[in-house]
Amino acid sequence: MSAKAPLQTLVDSYYGRISRAARLLSRCEWEADDLTQETFIRAAESWNRFAERSDVFTWLYGILLNIDRSRRRRIVRWIRCHTALTRSFDVESCVDSDQSESELVWQQVAELPPVFRQAVTMRFAEGWSYDRIADVCDCNEATARSRVSKALKRLRLKIGGLPREKTLCMLAIPRGTVTE
Q: Do domains 1-95 and 96-174 have the same CATH topology?
């Protein structure tokens, strides 16, 4: 992609993948739409600063993760400031009640701390290598592996001590090809 790539080309090429990742991170369709749109707005604003040390999708995914982190921090601050108003706040309102086991596992993934949630999403939803996860998260490969491992351990405890293989099977999302 050229340095003067129009926004429309960027959106056409990567919208589906970024939108899917946003849905997995947020578990809510309207929040995912907001995250996706904000990702492309920020990408357009900072296209001239894109260093091309990684591919465009990795760069966009990093932007998405930063926006998601900021959004979650704002929500936590708001909840702390408005605790009286949040007693009836229903986080689950965005999630359908009729879910498969896999969807329930992903619901638990969404409740993990951000570094674990993001590592699991990149590894299992995107099929990324640990090296690529480390690049996006700005850490080394061992840290990326550790985050995924710790996240899986937490998931098994939350779900009721499922064997590792069963947890991995429920995290699997059917895809045509794995992105490396």
A: no
* pLDDT > 70 in the chain, percent: 69
Q: List the structure tokens of 81.
A: 């400031």
- What does the pLDDT average to over 13-19? 92
The CATH number of domain 96-174 is 2.70.98.10: no
Residue 167, amino acid: T
Please give the CATH number for the structural domain made up of 1-95: 1.10.1740.10
What integer is the mean pLDDT of 1-12? 67
φ, ψ for residue 174 (rounded to 5)? -55, 130
Tell me, what DSSP letter sits at residue 160? T
- Judge whether 119 and 133 are in contact, CB under 8 Å: yes
Q: Which of 132, 93, 117, 96 is nearest to 22 (CA)?
A: 117
Q: Which residues are CB-contacts of 19 (< 8 A; sequence separation ≥ 6)?
A: 32, 33, 36
CA distance 21 to 38: 13
**Domain coordinates of the chain in residue numbers?**
1-95, 96-174
* pTM score of the predicted model: 0.54
